[in-house]
Specification:
Distance between the termini: 52 Å
Helix content: 40-55%
Oligomer: single chain
Largest sheet: 6 strands, mixed
Strand order of the largest sheet: 1-12-11-10-13-14
Shape: globular
Strand content: 5-15%
Radius of gyration: 24 Å
Number of helices: 22
């Protein structure tokens, strides 16, 4: 096993088994770090907790809901507004956060009365919002507050409201992934099947594991509508609370992020017989294959092919423009869970970059298996790295850009390595044919930013040119290209700054009116 030992972690010998370097001929039987285990004492992890995984990742993207954390105010602030989970109801869930604000006296004497008071105050403050989720935190779970009982009392007093309780305190798993599991199972146990769906089409799906980061969900739903597919609910980005109670009525579960939401898909299959189909909205080839799979399932492949042909003709040349200029650039792919493997293949094949390292803070072995298998020789794979290990890796690998979250990203910037936000994006959406070109543009801007070039110069000791004048990204990126490539009239991404507004402006009349199937055809 080609384990990699960080100099900074030699005092924690167990960490050696959590990093590997992929050598010549290595496969997953001999090149796989340990993963999804409790953080080793002494290693200052940057993981989130199970409560964070339940509320921040999965719960909060529900758009028409009061999201209330029962615990100290710090818990809810830590999980508020750090991802751009936008919605088409004026981003209600991003504007407000709610907490019962538990203090020391409540820990001693109990906080159930406080919780009930907070619930009633929240509904009074927002009379148009009739749905609420309550998240248990470590403090109130340890003192044994009965959140379910309080929720039942309120629903009896206010019969027009509905409340979902998620008992996922921070200690409920080794990382936020434990919280994903908790909220998936709680939702199907408590809410799925409590409202009957309104079916308006022949082909009905739940779009699962999609959180509408900067509009990702809206891009994908637009493709589905162009195929004549009804999206019954989205779990949970831009998703409506009551729509998500009707998930049992779909014909197919289309799963995007397997790490966060495969649990509810598997339960829907067991309890309601709804099949699961895994897709990938990142990358032109992967997205095209995904639309084909959905089309094949419903027997409408021609509709998928029409969209693929139209979109690749429009955006393929622009992606190729960036690929020429990004060829061979080194990337550290340090996201969270599923983007580890959603992106690893696609960015190398379609953008020409080289992935020199992958890591995951909370992913399972399956995530690392997929990520490592899609990397080339010499790639460094790390499970749950701490900040010092990340810094050592950057100094050793010398990447041109890093894709990661805000905390390690800001550290990388101080080390003069540009970063793109893999969790909330810089200028998304990144899903879809156009979105993938937007991602390529952001990589290009990061790598070839003249300001970044200047930031790498220490004027107290480094030599620097004083006769170059004004430098542009194009001058830096095109220096080694052929004259033909330099002469191309194309300048990269041609889309608008806001690519979502046009989608939101569409009405039913803007989508194809496919004829409905007869009762006989539907039965077949």
């Amino acid at each position: 096993m080609p384990y990699h030992e960080f100099e900074v972690s030699k005092c924690i010998p167990e960490r050696k088994e959590h990093a590997v370097v992929k050598g010549p001929g290595e496969d997953l039987t001999s090149c796989l770090p340990k993963g999804y285990l409790n953080t080793i004492p002494g290693s200052i992890s940057e993981r989130g907790c199970a409560y964070c995984g339940a509320k921040h990742v999965i719960g909060t993207p529900m758009k028409d809901v009061i999201h209330l954390s029962h615990g100290p105010v710090g818990c809810t602030y830590d999980t508020w507004q750090t991802k751009r989970y936008i919605s088409d109801n004026d981003d209600y869930q991003l504007k407000y956060t709610f907490a019962s604000d538990v203090k020391e006296k409540h820990i001693v004497f109990g906080a159930e009365k406080l919780l009930k008071q907070n619930i009633l105050e929240a509904f009074k403050a927002f009379p148009n919002i009739k749905r609420m989720t309550i998240y248990q935190t470590c403090a109130t779970a340890l003192i044994g507050d009965d959140v379910d009982a309080i929720a039942a009392e309120v629903k009896e007093e206010l019969p027009d409201v509905d409340i979902f309780v998620c008992n996922s305190p921070g200690f409920a798993g080794p990382s936020q992934s434990g919280g994903h599991h908790k909220i998936n199972i709680a939702w199907i146990n408590q809410k799925v099947g409590t409202i009957e769906p309104k079916i308006t089409g022949d082909y009905v799906i739940n779009y699962v594991g999609e959180y509408n980061i900067q509009g990702d969900q809206e891009v994908m739903v637009d493709y589905f509508k162009r195929m004549g597919i009804q999206v019954l609910s989205t779990f949970t980005g831009n998703g409506s609370y009551d729509d998500l109670r009707t998930m049992h009525g779909a014909h197919l579960n289309v799963l995007e992020c397997a790490r966060s939401a495969e649990y509810i898909c598997d339960e829907l299959r067991v309890r309601y017989g709804i099949p699961r189909l895994d897709i990938d909205g990142f990358g032109h080839k992967a997205l095209g294959d995904s639309l084909r799979k959905i089309g094949l399932f419903f027997g409408i492949e021609d509709r998928a092919e029409a969209i693929i042909a139209e979109e690749t003709a429009k955006w393929g040349p622009e992606l190729a423009w960036y690929k020429e200029r990004l060829q061979g650039k080194k990337v550290c792919l340090w996201p969270g869970g599923s983007k580890l493997w959603h992106w690893a293949n696609a960015i190398q094949e379609e953008m020409g970059v080289k992935v020199v390292s992958v890591y995951t803070k909370f992913g399972h072995q399956g995530d690392m298996e997929k990520g490592v298998s899609r990397c080339g020789e010499g790639a460094l794979a790390i499970d749950d790295p701490n900040e010092l290990e990340g810094q050592e890796a950057l100094r050793t690998l010398k990447p041109d850009v890093i894709f990661t979250g805000k905390r390690p990203g800001e550290v990388a910037k101080k080390m003069r390595v540009p970063y793109l936000n893999a969790h909330a994006y810089h200028n998304g959406p990144y899903k879809g044919f156009e979105g993938w070109v937007r991602f390529a543009r952001d990589i290009y801007n990061a790598v070839y930013s003249p300001m970044h070039q200047l930031s790498a110069i220490d004027i107290s000791k480094d030599d620097y040119a004083t006769d170059k004048g004004f430098t542009t990204r194009r001058m830096l990126s095109d220096a080694n290209l052929s004259d033909e490539a330099k002469a191309s009239p194309m300048t990269g991404y041609s889309g608008k700054f806001d690519s979502i507004a046009a989608i939101r402006a569409k009405t039913d009349a803007d989508y194809p009116a496919f004829p409905r199937r007869s009762a006989t055809e539907a039965a077949e």
